[in-house]
Protein backbone atom coordinates (compact mmCIF):
# COMPACT_ATOMS: atom_id res chain seq x y z
CA UNK A 1 0.00 0.00 0.00
CA UNK A 2 1.30 3.44 -0.86
CA UNK A 3 0.28 6.96 0.12
CA UNK A 4 -0.46 7.59 -3.56
CA UNK A 5 -3.21 4.97 -3.53
CA UNK A 6 -4.78 6.61 -0.51
CA UNK A 7 -4.59 10.05 -2.07
CA UNK A 8 -6.32 8.90 -5.21
CA UNK A 9 -9.02 7.17 -3.17
CA UNK A 10 -9.61 10.33 -1.15
CA UNK A 11 -9.79 12.36 -4.37
CA UNK A 12 -12.33 9.92 -5.75
CA UNK A 13 -14.61 10.86 -2.85
CA UNK A 14 -13.80 14.55 -2.93
CA UNK A 15 -11.85 15.91 -5.90
CA UNK A 16 -11.17 19.15 -4.00
CA UNK A 17 -9.77 17.52 -0.88
CA UNK A 18 -6.64 19.25 0.34
CA UNK A 19 -4.29 16.30 0.55
CA UNK A 20 -1.11 18.13 1.61
CA UNK A 21 -1.76 17.37 5.25
CA UNK A 22 -2.33 13.73 4.35
CA UNK A 23 1.12 13.52 2.81
CA UNK A 24 2.60 15.26 5.81
CA UNK A 25 0.92 12.74 8.11
CA UNK A 26 2.41 9.95 6.09
CA UNK A 27 5.93 11.34 6.39
CA UNK A 28 5.44 11.95 10.09
CA UNK A 29 4.08 8.45 10.81
CA UNK A 30 6.72 6.80 8.64
CA UNK A 31 9.42 8.56 10.64
CA UNK A 32 7.75 7.72 13.96
CA UNK A 33 7.36 4.02 13.13
CA UNK A 34 10.72 3.82 11.37
CA UNK A 35 12.38 0.45 11.97
CA UNK A 36 9.26 -1.10 13.57
CA UNK A 37 7.97 -4.33 12.10
CA UNK A 38 4.62 -6.08 12.34
CA UNK A 39 4.43 -9.72 13.39
CA UNK A 40 4.08 -10.83 9.78
CA UNK A 41 7.38 -9.10 9.01
CA UNK A 42 6.18 -6.12 6.98
CA UNK A 43 7.06 -2.62 8.12
CA UNK A 44 4.69 -1.04 10.63
CA UNK A 45 3.69 1.87 8.44
CA UNK A 46 1.94 -0.61 6.16
CA UNK A 47 -0.61 -1.19 8.90
CA UNK A 48 -1.19 2.56 9.23
CA UNK A 49 -1.60 2.93 5.48
CA UNK A 50 -4.01 0.02 5.19
CA UNK A 51 -6.12 1.43 8.00
CA UNK A 52 -6.26 4.80 6.24
CA UNK A 53 -7.11 3.19 2.92
CA UNK A 54 -10.01 1.26 4.42
CA UNK A 55 -11.28 4.53 5.86
CA UNK A 56 -11.07 6.22 2.48
CA UNK A 57 -12.94 3.26 1.03
CA UNK A 58 -15.88 3.76 3.36
CA UNK A 59 -15.75 7.45 2.45
CA UNK A 60 -14.71 8.78 5.81
CA UNK A 61 -13.73 12.46 5.85
CA UNK A 62 -10.15 13.64 5.31
CA UNK A 63 -9.28 14.21 8.98
CA UNK A 64 -10.45 10.70 9.80
CA UNK A 65 -8.23 9.25 7.08
CA UNK A 66 -5.30 11.27 8.43
CA UNK A 67 -6.01 10.09 11.98
CA UNK A 68 -6.05 6.57 10.54
CA UNK A 69 -2.44 7.01 9.45
CA UNK A 70 -1.46 8.41 12.83
CA UNK A 71 -3.56 6.13 15.02
CA UNK A 72 -0.74 4.08 16.57
CA UNK A 73 1.78 6.89 16.93
CA UNK A 74 1.25 7.91 20.60
CA UNK A 75 0.84 4.32 21.74
CA UNK A 76 3.77 2.73 19.94
CA UNK A 77 6.35 5.41 19.20
CA UNK A 78 8.35 8.13 20.93
CA UNK A 79 6.04 10.84 19.61
CA UNK A 80 3.29 11.68 22.07
CA UNK A 81 -0.21 13.03 21.64
CA UNK A 82 0.87 16.62 22.30
CA UNK A 83 3.30 16.37 19.44
CA UNK A 84 0.54 15.09 17.18
CA UNK A 85 -1.65 17.97 18.32
CA UNK A 86 1.07 20.53 17.58
CA UNK A 87 1.52 19.20 14.07
CA UNK A 88 -2.01 18.29 13.07
CA UNK A 89 -4.37 20.30 15.25
CA UNK A 90 -7.09 19.54 17.78
CA UNK A 91 -9.55 17.68 15.59
CA UNK A 92 -7.08 15.06 14.37
CA UNK A 93 -5.36 14.79 17.76
CA UNK A 94 -8.75 14.25 19.39
CA UNK A 95 -9.43 11.32 17.08
CA UNK A 96 -6.02 9.80 17.75
CA UNK A 97 -6.54 10.25 21.47
CA UNK A 98 -9.86 8.42 21.25
CA UNK A 99 -8.21 5.48 19.52
CA UNK A 100 -5.47 5.32 22.11
CA UNK A 101 -8.11 5.17 24.85
CA UNK A 102 -10.10 2.51 23.05
CA UNK A 103 -7.02 0.35 22.66
CA UNK A 104 -7.12 -0.28 26.42
CA UNK A 105 -10.33 -2.25 25.96
CA UNK A 106 -10.01 -6.00 26.08
CA UNK A 107 -12.66 -8.66 25.98
CA UNK A 108 -11.49 -11.95 27.36
CA UNK A 109 -14.66 -13.88 26.63
CA UNK A 110 -16.23 -13.31 30.05
CA UNK A 111 -19.88 -12.77 29.35
CA UNK A 112 -20.68 -10.56 32.30
CA UNK A 113 -18.45 -7.84 30.87
CA UNK A 114 -19.84 -7.99 27.37
CA UNK A 115 -22.62 -5.44 27.65
CA UNK A 116 -20.47 -2.95 29.52
CA UNK A 117 -17.77 -3.31 26.92
CA UNK A 118 -20.09 -2.62 24.04
CA UNK A 119 -21.54 0.36 25.86
CA UNK A 120 -18.16 1.66 26.79
CA UNK A 121 -16.95 1.27 23.27
CA UNK A 122 -19.61 3.67 22.15
CA UNK A 123 -19.45 5.97 25.14
CA UNK A 124 -15.70 6.45 25.09
CA UNK A 125 -15.67 7.25 21.46
CA UNK A 126 -17.18 10.67 21.95
CA UNK A 127 -16.79 11.08 18.27
CA UNK A 128 -18.20 8.28 16.13
CA UNK A 129 -15.33 8.73 13.68
CA UNK A 130 -13.10 7.20 16.36
CA UNK A 131 -15.14 4.02 16.12
CA UNK A 132 -14.75 3.93 12.36
CA UNK A 133 -10.99 4.20 12.71
CA UNK A 134 -11.05 1.42 15.29
CA UNK A 135 -13.08 -0.78 12.92
CA UNK A 136 -10.64 -0.27 10.06
CA UNK A 137 -7.66 -0.81 12.36
CA UNK A 138 -9.29 -4.04 13.53
CA UNK A 139 -10.15 -5.18 10.04
CA UNK A 140 -6.55 -4.89 8.94
CA UNK A 141 -5.41 -6.68 12.09
CA UNK A 142 -7.83 -9.49 11.28
CA UNK A 143 -6.47 -9.73 7.78
CA UNK A 144 -2.98 -10.22 9.16
CA UNK A 145 -4.00 -12.47 12.03
CA UNK A 146 -2.13 -15.48 10.65
CA UNK A 147 1.09 -14.05 12.02
CA UNK A 148 -0.13 -14.23 15.63
CA UNK A 149 -0.15 -17.21 17.99
CA UNK A 150 -3.41 -19.15 17.95
CA UNK A 151 -4.48 -18.09 21.42
CA UNK A 152 -4.30 -14.44 20.42
CA UNK A 153 -6.06 -15.10 17.13
CA UNK A 154 -9.00 -16.53 18.99
CA UNK A 155 -9.13 -13.79 21.58
CA UNK A 156 -9.15 -11.09 18.92
CA UNK A 157 -11.65 -12.89 16.72
CA UNK A 158 -14.03 -13.43 19.63
CA UNK A 159 -13.73 -9.84 20.77
CA UNK A 160 -14.46 -8.64 17.25
CA UNK A 161 -17.45 -10.91 16.78
CA UNK A 162 -19.01 -10.15 20.13
CA UNK A 163 -18.14 -6.48 20.61
CA UNK A 164 -17.11 -4.77 17.36
CA UNK A 165 -19.35 -6.43 14.79
CA UNK A 166 -22.63 -5.79 16.67
CA UNK A 167 -21.68 -2.13 17.02
CA UNK A 168 -20.83 -1.92 13.32
CA UNK A 169 -24.33 -3.29 12.69
CA UNK A 170 -25.87 -0.82 15.08
CA UNK A 171 -24.20 2.03 13.22
CA UNK A 172 -25.13 0.64 9.82
CA UNK A 173 -21.58 0.11 8.60
CA UNK A 174 -22.52 -3.17 6.94
CA UNK A 175 -19.56 -3.46 4.69
CA UNK A 176 -17.16 -3.52 7.62
CA UNK A 177 -19.44 -5.70 9.71
CA UNK A 178 -19.57 -8.41 7.05
CA UNK A 179 -15.87 -8.38 6.44
CA UNK A 180 -15.07 -8.58 10.13
CA UNK A 181 -17.55 -11.38 10.69
CA UNK A 182 -16.27 -13.56 7.88
CA UNK A 183 -12.69 -13.24 9.10
CA UNK A 184 -13.68 -14.04 12.67
CA UNK A 185 -15.70 -17.02 11.48
CA UNK A 186 -12.60 -18.31 9.72
CA UNK A 187 -10.58 -18.30 12.94
CA UNK A 188 -13.31 -19.38 15.35
CA UNK A 189 -14.89 -22.19 13.31
CA UNK A 190 -12.15 -23.13 10.84
CA UNK A 191 -13.73 -26.41 9.69
CA UNK A 192 -17.20 -24.99 9.10
CA UNK A 193 -15.66 -22.03 7.37
CA UNK A 194 -13.65 -24.19 4.99
CA UNK A 195 -16.68 -26.31 4.14
CA UNK A 196 -18.82 -23.30 3.27
CA UNK A 197 -16.03 -21.54 1.47
CA UNK A 198 -15.50 -24.58 -0.71
CA UNK A 199 -19.17 -24.83 -1.59
CA UNK A 200 -19.54 -21.15 -2.27
CA UNK A 201 -16.26 -20.38 -3.96
CA UNK A 202 -15.69 -23.59 -5.87
CA UNK A 203 -18.74 -25.78 -6.29
CA UNK A 204 -21.25 -23.04 -6.99
CA UNK A 205 -19.08 -20.33 -8.38
CA UNK A 206 -19.18 -21.30 -12.04
CA UNK A 207 -22.89 -21.96 -12.01
CA UNK A 208 -23.57 -18.71 -10.22
CA UNK A 209 -21.43 -16.51 -12.36
CA UNK A 210 -22.80 -18.03 -15.57
CA UNK A 211 -26.32 -17.40 -14.39
CA UNK A 212 -25.60 -13.86 -13.29
CA UNK A 213 -23.91 -13.13 -16.59
CA UNK A 214 -27.00 -14.35 -18.42
CA UNK A 215 -29.29 -12.10 -16.39
CA UNK A 216 -26.94 -9.17 -16.82
CA UNK A 217 -26.89 -9.57 -20.59
CA UNK A 218 -30.65 -9.85 -20.97
CA UNK A 219 -31.52 -7.10 -18.53
CA UNK A 220 -28.63 -4.85 -19.53
CA UNK A 221 -29.66 -4.89 -23.18
CA UNK A 222 -33.22 -3.93 -22.35
CA UNK A 223 -32.19 -1.16 -19.95
CA UNK A 224 -29.83 0.35 -22.52
CA UNK A 225 -32.65 0.26 -25.08
CA UNK A 226 -34.76 2.27 -22.64
CA UNK A 227 -31.90 4.74 -22.13
CA UNK A 228 -31.52 4.01 -18.43
CA UNK A 229 -28.08 4.31 -16.87
CA UNK A 230 -27.46 1.38 -14.56
CA UNK A 231 -24.96 -0.89 -12.86
CA UNK A 232 -25.71 -4.53 -12.09
CA UNK A 233 -23.94 -6.37 -9.29
CA UNK A 234 -24.12 -10.03 -8.43
CA UNK A 235 -24.78 -9.81 -4.74
CA UNK A 236 -22.14 -11.02 -2.38
CA UNK A 237 -23.54 -13.23 0.32
CA UNK A 238 -21.28 -13.44 3.26
CA UNK A 239 -20.37 -16.79 4.67
CA UNK A 240 -21.01 -16.04 8.30
CA UNK A 241 -24.60 -15.01 7.66
CA UNK A 242 -25.17 -18.20 5.68
CA UNK A 243 -23.72 -20.16 8.56
CA UNK A 244 -25.96 -18.38 11.03
CA UNK A 245 -29.03 -19.04 8.91
CA UNK A 246 -28.15 -22.70 8.63
CA UNK A 247 -27.78 -22.90 12.38
CA UNK A 248 -30.89 -20.97 13.26
CA UNK A 249 -33.27 -22.52 10.81
CA UNK A 250 -31.57 -25.86 10.57
CA UNK A 251 -31.67 -25.62 6.82
CA UNK A 252 -29.32 -27.13 4.31
CA UNK A 253 -26.82 -25.05 2.43
CA UNK A 254 -28.60 -25.51 -0.90
CA UNK A 255 -31.92 -24.23 0.37
CA UNK A 256 -30.33 -20.98 1.41
CA UNK A 257 -28.10 -20.77 -1.56
CA UNK A 258 -30.21 -21.62 -4.52
CA UNK A 259 -31.61 -18.16 -4.63
CA UNK A 260 -29.79 -15.90 -7.04
CA UNK A 261 -29.49 -12.35 -5.92
CA UNK A 262 -28.67 -9.27 -7.95
CA UNK A 263 -28.60 -5.59 -7.30
CA UNK A 264 -29.37 -2.90 -9.87
CA UNK A 265 -28.08 0.57 -9.11
CA UNK A 266 -29.38 3.64 -10.93
CA UNK A 267 -29.03 7.40 -10.77
CA UNK A 268 -32.53 8.49 -9.87
CA UNK A 269 -35.64 7.27 -8.09
CA UNK A 270 -37.82 7.34 -11.25
CA UNK A 271 -35.17 5.12 -12.88
CA UNK A 272 -35.58 2.61 -10.05
CA UNK A 273 -39.25 2.21 -10.91
CA UNK A 274 -38.47 1.98 -14.61
CA UNK A 275 -36.00 -0.82 -13.87
CA UNK A 276 -38.65 -2.64 -11.85
CA UNK A 277 -41.02 -2.40 -14.82
CA UNK A 278 -38.38 -3.74 -17.20
CA UNK A 279 -37.59 -6.68 -14.91
CA UNK A 280 -41.27 -7.57 -14.64
CA UNK A 281 -41.69 -7.36 -18.39
CA UNK A 282 -38.85 -9.86 -18.80
CA UNK A 283 -39.66 -12.32 -16.04
CA UNK A 284 -42.82 -13.16 -14.17
CA UNK A 285 -42.79 -11.76 -10.63
CA UNK A 286 -43.66 -13.88 -7.63
CA UNK A 287 -46.70 -11.91 -6.61
CA UNK A 288 -46.17 -11.60 -2.91
CA UNK A 289 -42.49 -10.78 -3.13
CA UNK A 290 -42.60 -7.18 -4.33
CA UNK A 291 -41.65 -4.61 -1.71
CA UNK A 292 -41.50 -0.86 -2.19
CA UNK A 293 -39.19 0.43 0.50
CA UNK A 294 -38.65 3.64 -1.43
CA UNK A 295 -42.21 4.88 -1.10
CA UNK A 296 -42.43 3.40 2.36
CA UNK A 297 -38.94 3.09 3.86
CA UNK A 298 -38.43 0.56 6.61
CA UNK A 299 -38.72 2.02 10.12
CA UNK A 300 -34.93 1.94 10.23
CA UNK A 301 -34.67 4.13 7.13
CA UNK A 302 -33.67 1.44 4.67
CA UNK A 303 -34.72 2.22 1.09
CA UNK A 304 -34.81 -0.02 -2.00
CA UNK A 305 -37.24 -1.83 -4.28
CA UNK A 306 -37.27 -5.59 -3.84
CA UNK A 307 -38.72 -8.14 -6.16
CA UNK A 308 -38.33 -11.86 -6.71
CA UNK A 309 -39.06 -13.25 -10.19
CA UNK A 310 -38.98 -16.54 -12.02
CA UNK A 311 -35.76 -15.78 -13.83
CA UNK A 312 -33.97 -17.56 -16.68
CA UNK A 313 -34.45 -21.36 -16.52
CA UNK A 314 -37.28 -20.61 -14.12
CA UNK A 315 -34.81 -20.01 -11.30
CA UNK A 316 -35.91 -17.91 -8.39
CA UNK A 317 -34.07 -14.61 -8.75
CA UNK A 318 -34.06 -11.77 -6.27
CA UNK A 319 -33.49 -8.13 -7.26
CA UNK A 320 -32.80 -5.09 -5.17
CA UNK A 321 -33.13 -1.83 -7.05
CA UNK A 322 -31.80 1.39 -5.59
CA UNK A 323 -30.04 4.65 -6.36
CA UNK A 324 -26.34 5.21 -5.79
CA UNK A 325 -27.15 7.26 -2.74
CA UNK A 326 -29.31 4.54 -1.21
CA UNK A 327 -26.62 2.01 -1.97
CA UNK A 328 -23.99 4.00 -0.15
CA UNK A 329 -26.25 4.51 2.81
CA UNK A 330 -26.84 0.79 2.99
CA UNK A 331 -23.15 -0.11 2.71
CA UNK A 332 -21.35 2.56 4.67
CA UNK A 333 -23.90 3.64 7.22
CA UNK A 334 -22.94 6.65 9.27
CA UNK A 335 -19.61 6.98 7.57
CA UNK A 336 -21.05 7.97 4.22
CA UNK A 337 -24.18 9.82 5.11
CA UNK A 338 -26.61 9.99 7.80
CA UNK A 339 -27.99 6.50 7.81
CA UNK A 340 -29.91 4.16 10.00
CA UNK A 341 -29.32 0.47 10.34
CA UNK A 342 -30.66 -2.73 9.00
CA UNK A 343 -30.53 -4.10 5.52
CA UNK A 344 -33.53 -6.36 5.12
CA UNK A 345 -34.15 -5.58 8.74
CA UNK A 346 -33.28 -9.05 9.89
CA UNK A 347 -29.74 -8.61 11.05
CA UNK A 348 -30.56 -6.86 14.26
CA UNK A 349 -33.09 -8.68 16.32
CA UNK A 350 -34.59 -5.85 18.29
CA UNK A 351 -36.59 -7.96 20.67
CA UNK A 352 -33.54 -9.40 22.34
CA UNK A 353 -31.60 -6.18 22.61
CA UNK A 354 -30.75 -4.68 25.97
CA UNK A 355 -32.49 -1.43 26.81
CA UNK A 356 -29.58 0.81 25.86
CA UNK A 357 -29.42 -0.64 22.35
CA UNK A 358 -33.13 -0.06 21.91
CA UNK A 359 -32.54 3.50 23.05
CA UNK A 360 -29.88 3.97 20.40
CA UNK A 361 -32.07 2.52 17.68
CA UNK A 362 -34.83 4.85 18.73
CA UNK A 363 -32.55 7.85 18.73
CA UNK A 364 -31.35 6.88 15.25
CA UNK A 365 -34.88 6.79 13.95
CA UNK A 366 -35.61 10.29 15.13
CA UNK A 367 -32.27 11.99 14.70
CA UNK A 368 -32.05 14.65 12.03
CA UNK A 369 -28.32 14.45 11.43
CA UNK A 370 -25.21 12.62 12.55
CA UNK A 371 -24.36 15.38 15.03
CA UNK A 372 -27.84 15.29 16.41
CA UNK A 373 -27.50 11.53 16.82
CA UNK A 374 -24.18 11.73 18.65
CA UNK A 375 -25.34 14.47 20.97
CA UNK A 376 -28.55 12.70 21.82
CA UNK A 377 -26.69 9.49 22.52
CA UNK A 378 -24.38 11.31 24.86
CA UNK A 379 -27.27 12.95 26.65
CA UNK A 380 -29.73 10.11 26.83
CA UNK A 381 -27.97 6.81 26.85
CA UNK A 382 -24.69 7.50 28.54
CA UNK A 383 -25.88 10.31 30.70
CA UNK A 384 -24.66 9.82 34.22
CA UNK A 385 -22.68 6.67 33.48
CA UNK A 386 -18.92 6.22 33.49
CA UNK A 387 -16.77 3.30 32.44
CA UNK A 388 -13.63 2.26 34.26
CA UNK A 389 -11.12 -0.54 33.89
CA UNK A 390 -9.92 -3.18 36.29
CA UNK A 391 -6.16 -3.87 36.16
CA UNK A 392 -6.91 -6.82 33.83
CA UNK A 393 -8.73 -4.57 31.38
CA UNK A 394 -12.29 -5.60 32.26
CA UNK A 395 -14.80 -2.79 32.02
CA UNK A 396 -17.23 -1.71 34.71
CA UNK A 397 -20.19 0.51 34.06
CA UNK A 398 -20.87 2.82 37.05
CA UNK A 399 -23.02 5.85 37.84
CA UNK A 400 -21.35 9.23 37.41
CA UNK A 401 -19.49 10.37 40.51
CA UNK A 402 -18.70 6.81 41.58
CA UNK A 403 -15.68 6.30 43.80
CA UNK A 404 -13.14 3.49 44.24
CA UNK A 405 -15.49 2.04 46.87
CA UNK A 406 -18.31 1.77 44.32
CA UNK A 407 -15.90 0.13 41.94
CA UNK A 408 -14.73 -2.37 44.57
CA UNK A 409 -18.29 -3.47 45.33
CA UNK A 410 -18.97 -3.95 41.63
CA UNK A 411 -16.00 -6.25 41.28
CA UNK A 412 -16.98 -8.37 44.28
CA UNK A 413 -18.61 -7.69 47.63
CA UNK A 414 -15.68 -9.26 49.48
CA UNK A 415 -13.30 -6.89 47.69
CA UNK A 416 -15.44 -4.02 48.91
CA UNK A 417 -15.62 -5.35 52.44
CA UNK A 418 -11.87 -5.87 52.68
CA UNK A 419 -10.72 -2.79 50.83
CA UNK A 420 -8.14 -0.64 52.46
CA UNK A 421 -6.94 1.65 49.71
CA UNK A 422 -7.09 2.37 46.01
CA UNK A 423 -4.92 3.30 43.08
CA UNK A 424 -6.32 5.30 40.19
CA UNK A 425 -4.19 5.18 37.05
CA UNK A 426 -1.33 3.77 39.11
CA UNK A 427 -1.43 6.58 41.67
CA UNK A 428 -2.59 6.25 45.27
CA UNK A 429 -5.99 7.86 45.63
CA UNK A 430 -8.43 8.51 48.44
CA UNK A 431 -11.44 6.23 48.71
CA UNK A 432 -13.92 9.00 47.95
CA UNK A 433 -12.21 10.38 44.87
CA UNK A 434 -14.70 10.57 41.98
CA UNK A 435 -13.70 8.34 39.06
CA UNK A 436 -13.55 9.55 35.49
CA UNK A 437 -14.35 7.78 32.23
CA UNK A 438 -11.49 5.50 31.21
CA UNK A 439 -9.72 5.47 34.60
CA UNK A 440 -8.08 2.24 35.56
CA UNK A 441 -8.67 1.33 39.18
CA UNK A 442 -6.88 -1.08 41.43
CA UNK A 443 -8.16 -1.94 44.89
CA UNK A 444 -5.78 -2.60 47.76
CA UNK A 445 -7.07 -5.21 50.16
CA UNK A 446 -6.43 -5.93 53.80
CA UNK A 447 -7.36 -9.54 54.37
CA UNK A 448 -7.71 -9.01 58.11
CA UNK A 449 -10.18 -6.20 57.72
CA UNK A 450 -13.50 -6.98 59.44
CA UNK A 451 -15.82 -5.04 57.16
CA UNK A 452 -16.70 -1.72 55.57
CA UNK A 453 -16.72 1.65 57.25
CA UNK A 454 -20.26 2.96 57.52
CA UNK A 455 -18.93 6.46 56.72
CA UNK A 456 -18.49 5.21 53.15
CA UNK A 457 -22.26 5.51 52.83
CA UNK A 458 -21.78 9.29 52.81
CA UNK A 459 -20.02 9.25 49.45
CA UNK A 460 -20.81 6.07 47.51
CA UNK A 461 -23.05 6.61 44.49
CA UNK A 462 -24.21 3.17 43.37
CA UNK A 463 -27.12 1.38 44.97
CA UNK A 464 -25.15 -1.81 44.89
CA UNK A 465 -22.37 -0.40 47.06
CA UNK A 466 -24.91 1.18 49.43
CA UNK A 467 -26.77 -2.07 49.92
CA UNK A 468 -23.65 -4.15 50.39
CA UNK A 469 -22.21 -1.74 52.92
CA UNK A 470 -25.47 -1.65 54.88
CA UNK A 471 -25.72 -5.40 54.72
CA UNK A 472 -22.15 -5.95 55.87
CA UNK A 473 -22.53 -3.38 58.68
CA UNK A 474 -25.67 -5.11 59.88
CA UNK A 475 -23.74 -8.35 59.83
CA UNK A 476 -20.95 -6.94 61.90
CA UNK A 477 -23.33 -5.31 64.35
CA UNK A 478 -25.03 -8.66 64.63
CA UNK A 479 -21.77 -10.40 65.41
CA UNK A 480 -20.91 -7.70 67.95
CA UNK A 481 -24.23 -8.24 69.61
CA UNK A 482 -23.56 -11.92 69.56
CA UNK A 483 -20.39 -11.37 71.54
CA UNK A 484 -22.37 -9.49 74.17
CA UNK A 485 -25.32 -11.82 74.13
CA UNK A 486 -23.87 -15.20 73.26
CA UNK A 487 -27.26 -16.83 73.42
CA UNK A 488 -28.60 -14.91 70.38
MN1 LIG B 1 -3.42 -0.25 14.88
Could you explain how this protein is built, in words?
The protein is an alpha+beta fold. It folds into 3 domains: 3-188, Hypothetical protein af1432, CATH 1.10.3210.10; 204-332, Beta Polymerase, domain 2 (2-Layer Sandwich), CATH 3.30.460; 383-484, Roll (Ubiquitin-like (UB roll)). 55% of the residues lie in helices and 11% in strands. Strands 1, 2, 3, 4, 5 and 6 form a 6-stranded mixed beta sheet that branches. α7 packs across α9, α11 (190-203) crosses α13 and α19 packs across α21. The N and C termini lie far apart (77 Å). Bound molecules: manganese (II) ion. The site of manganese (II) ion (MN) has 4 residues, from loops. Residues 47, 71-72, 137 line the site of manganese (II) ion (MN).
The percent range for strand residues is 5-15%
The separation of the N and C termini measures 77 Å
Named CATH architecture of the largest domain: Orthogonal Bundle
Structural class: alpha+beta
Report Rg. Answer: 27 Å
Question: Quaternary arrangement of the chains shown?
Answer: single chain
Largest sheet: 6 strands, mixed
Kindly state the number of beta strands: 11
Figure out the total of helices.
21
Could you state the CATH homologous superfamily of the largest domain? Answer: Hypothetical protein af1432
> What number of domains?
3
C-alpha geometry? globular
| Overall pLDDT metric | 84
What ligands does this structure carry? manganese (II) ion
Which percent bin holds the helix content? 55-70%
> What is the CATH topology classification name of the largest domain?
Hypothetical protein af1432
CATH level-1 class of the largest domain: Mainly Alpha
Amino acid sequence: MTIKQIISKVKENDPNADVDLLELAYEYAAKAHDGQKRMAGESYIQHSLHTAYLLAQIKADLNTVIAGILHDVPEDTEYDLEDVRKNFGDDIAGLVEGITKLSKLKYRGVERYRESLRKMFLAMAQDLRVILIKFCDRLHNLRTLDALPQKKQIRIARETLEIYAPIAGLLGVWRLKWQMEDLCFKYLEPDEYKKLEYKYEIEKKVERSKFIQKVKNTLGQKLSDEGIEYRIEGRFKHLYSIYQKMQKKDRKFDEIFDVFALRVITNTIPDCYKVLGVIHSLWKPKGDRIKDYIAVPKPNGYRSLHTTVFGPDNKSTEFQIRTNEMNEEALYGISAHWHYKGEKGGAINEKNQPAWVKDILNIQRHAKSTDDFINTIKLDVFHKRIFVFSPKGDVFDLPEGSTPVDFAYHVHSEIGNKMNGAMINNKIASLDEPLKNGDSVEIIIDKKRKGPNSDWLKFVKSNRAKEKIKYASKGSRFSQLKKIFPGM
